[in-house]
Design a protein that fits this description.
The chain is mainly β and 734 residues long.
Length: 734
């Protein structure tokens, strides 16, 4: 019996054909490589059951002067500081309204409350807290009491610029007829951001064919003549708001009222549409449209063209762009850095805020221009794409920000964002931004690209990425403070969080390749590039984020696969082994160990400690590695395999009898199916005096080539694959 050792090259190579990758691995999940051999990923455990609101995008860990271990968490809805497992909401607030500016209206039997506030400036999903509500709430004996209303609410829908709806914890009754009194005050938090990218607005952004998937629709319940103003439909189907517009054939109708018996009161021939018109302009009318109402047969389709509260379900006429109402096209991301024990935060393309640790969690972050901790306020940026604190020289730096104020004494900038402008405060003073002979404040402007994307601080410099160029920013001292140098042209970068520094080396993901800077810029050879970029949802590219797992010398990019709106995959470059591997995992943000013992990641509104266990938060974690095909004499002879001697170690397993399966798969040609597959388990039986497990595995596999797959599916399993041996011998040419 002659045994052949199965020794494979480290790393996964998926960008070549199967036969050209003989002696290598072609696929895997939850696998890493150490010392040239594959082993199972470390598992994770959630910190506790406490959750936060929104999808986390960024994490920042620091220690306060009193030893508090703080973790900043920026989500698309809020900003939190976690300590001891508790999520403390420090989301900045706007100035409160004047007393009496806000009134309420409730409907008997409904939990929906309409809030009236002129020019409120709020968006759907924004948060507001009410105070000053009448002691009787909305009425003596009503269900909507003062206690219920004096709380934080998330806005459900926007009716108009002057009103919106919230949801009460209880339904109103017939006594809830009041408006909350004349002293109601509303305090709005800063506008929330998007959780998914809006692809674009304007002409051509919508459905060219004129239909929107999911557009609300129903049918006429009876024929409609040209004089009728009451429209009977099978179901209102969400057509419930005064001011909605419906379309029947080519006639638009403005809804003025609705009833419970599915009858709509309408104004006929709206916007000049009628018997001889087409919906072909932005206002759904036509310059030569007829003004006479038309007749419509029973069961004719009725579409919601324009809804006040649900524009995503509106019908779009042929050639018209979809109507998209959103605070911005990009998802909400954050940048943050500690200034001493305090925290500076910036929602991308928003203002800069400051949280004073000494005030505790009961006081929210304040706009930097309003802090009273420092004197000499001047030209503080009002908008920026990223903010950081330079560690060596203690300057606060704003990227993609607005310019200086109109006067040297102006406390704020001019409010006009320049996507290539960089400004920095005076040293040790985060509020002094106007350059003078006695401070170190100043500005620089990037000379390449069209917009700033990301800045990454290393030990020696700050690397700055635009959409096309890479620059170096270094502290040089007075009188210029910082110097700027272009390092590379014609590079790309995937997202505002796709570059990371490992000491003085920076790795990043471009739009179709990977890069590394270590004194010079070069593309990083990648053996799984096609696997990543050919199965990638570029619509959600801003969700790509990168982290470092320094214990294992790994740079990890998390990204959304094609068809997924959430991050559900990862790709790893091991800079010690110089190999690549990938897998599937849902993580919104990541931060390496350092201040805390283990790497921390977010997912499902939870915090997870990674590399802490062998499992998926107590459940089994599937891990596998699969080789390319192996043959004899270039595949011109058949192979017969009858036996394998496994080589594996279960060191680190927490289960009493951990096991893995060894699967052999045989085929006759590279393009053919696997004709034979046999899977056998290898189980550890004891660890004393030495680790023992299955001594041999018997197979009956025959083909021109075969592949091996090693997989674990149980709990408590930790394994590392060595060099198995197989009884592999020629078995003829047929």
């Amino acid at each position: 019996m002659a045994y052949t050792s199965l020794k494979f090259r480290p790393g996964i190579i998926s960008d070549v054909t199967a036969y050209s990758n003989e002696g290598g691995y072609i696929d895997g999940d939850k696998i890493r490589f150490r010392n040239g051999f594959p082993e199972k990923f470390g598992g994770w455990v959630k910190q506790n059951s406490n959750t936060y609101l929104g999808s986390a995008r960024r994490l920042h860990n620091w220690v306060a002067l009193d030893g508090s271990n703080l973790l900043g968490i920026g989500t698309h809805l809020k900003y939190y500081i976690e300590e001891g497992g508790q999520f403390n909401d420090i989301t900045p607030e706007k100035d409160p309204t004047a007393a009496g500016d806000i009134t309420f209206a409730a409907t008997n039997g409904s939990t929906t409350i309409t809030v009236t506030d002129a020019a409120h400036g709020a968006n759907v999903n924004d948060f507001v807290t009410f105070s000053g509500v009448d002691s009787n709430g909305l009425g003596s004996g009503g269900n909507i009491t003062q206690t219920i209303l004096q709380a934080e609410f998330q806005i459900v829908s926007i009716i108009s610029s002057n009103s919106y709806t919230i949801t009460s914890s209880v339904a109103a009754n017939s006594s809830d007829l009041g408006n909350g009194g004349s002293s109601v005050v509303g305090t709005y938090q800063i506008n929330t951001g998007l959780d998914a990218t809006v692809g674009g607005t304007g002409w051509g952004a919508g459905q060219w064919s004129g239909t929107t998937d999911g557009a609300l629709a129903t049918q006429l319940n009876e024929a409609l003549d040209a004089s009728e103003t009451d429209v009977d439909v099978d179901e209102e189907t969400g057509i419930t708001d005064t001011g909605d517009v419906i379309l029947i054939d080519n006639e638009l109708m403005l809804v003025s009222a609705t009833t419970d018996d599915d009858t709509l009161t309408v104004t006929r021939a709206y916007a000049g549409t009628g018997a001889a018109s087409n919906v072909n302009t932005a206002n759904h009318g036509s310059s030569n449209a007829a003004t006479d109402a038309a007749t419509h047969a029973d069961n004719t389709l009725v579409r919601l063209v324009k809804g006040n509260t649900d524009s995503a379900n509106d019908f779009v006429g042929w050639g018209l762009a979809a109507s998209i109402s959103a605070p911005g096209a990009e998802i909400r991301t954050w940048s943050h850095d500690n200034f001493g024990e305090d925290l500076i935060i910036n929602p991308r393309d928003g203002a800069i805020y400051y949280w004073d640790k000494s005030t505790g969690f009961s006081v929210r972050a304040k706009e930097l221009s309003t802090t009273s901790l420092y004197s000499g306020k001047s030209s503080i940026p009002t908008i920026a794409k990223q903010v950081l604190v330079s560690d060596q020289d203690r300057h606060v730096i704003a990227f993609g920000c607005d310019g200086f104020g109109t006067l040297s004494t102006s406390p704020q900038g001019n409010g006009v964002q320049d996507p290539l402008l960089i400004r920095f405060s005076s040293q040790e003073n985060p509020v002094d931004w106007f350059p003078t002979a006695t401070n170190t404040a100043g500005d620089l402007r990037l000379g390449g690209g069209s917009t700033f994307v990301q800045a990454v601080e290393t030990k020696q410099q700050i690397l700055i990425f635009t959409n096309k160029t890479l620059h170096s920013m270094k502290f040089i001292g007075p009188p210029f403070t910082f110097g700027l140098q272009e390092l590379s042209k014609n590079i790309t970068i995937m997202s505002p969080a796709s570059a990371v520094a490992v000491e003085d080396v920076v790795f990043w993901m471009g739009v179709d390749t990977f890069y590394v800077y270590g004194g010079g810029t070069q593309q990083l050879p990648c053996t799984v590039k096609d696997k990543v970029f050919l199965d990638f949802n570029f619509d959600e590219r801003d969700k790509v984020h990168v982290g470092v797992n320094s214990e294992f010398s790994e740079v990890i990019w998390f990204y959304p696969k094609e068809g997924s709106s959430t991050v559900n995959a990862y790709v790893v470059y091991n800079y010690a082994e110089k190999v690549w591997y990938y897998g599937t995992l849902n993580r919104d943000a990541w931060i390496d160990r350092g201040i805390r013992t283990f790497p921390i990641a977010t997912g499902n509104s939870l915090l997870y400690n990674h590399e802490l266990t062998n499992d998926d938060d107590g459940s089994a974690m599937t891990s596998f590695i699969e080789s390319g095909p192996i043959d004899i004499s270039d595949g011109d002879k058949f192979i017969s395999i009858k036996q394998m001697l496994p080589d594996v170690t279960f060191n680190g397993s927490t289960g009493s009898t951990p096991s893995v399966s060894f699967t052999l798969k045989a085929k006759n040609s590279s393009g053919g199916n696997f004709l034979q597959t046999e899977s056998k388990d290898t189980t550890r039986s004891t660890t004393t005096p030495i680790e023992q497990f299955t001594d041999k595995i018997d197979y009956r596999v025959r083909g021109r080539s075969f592949a091996i797959k090693v997989e674990s599916t149980g709990t408590g399993v930790k394994y590392k694959l060595g060099t198995p041996r197989v009884d592999m011998r020629p078995d003829g040419r047929r």
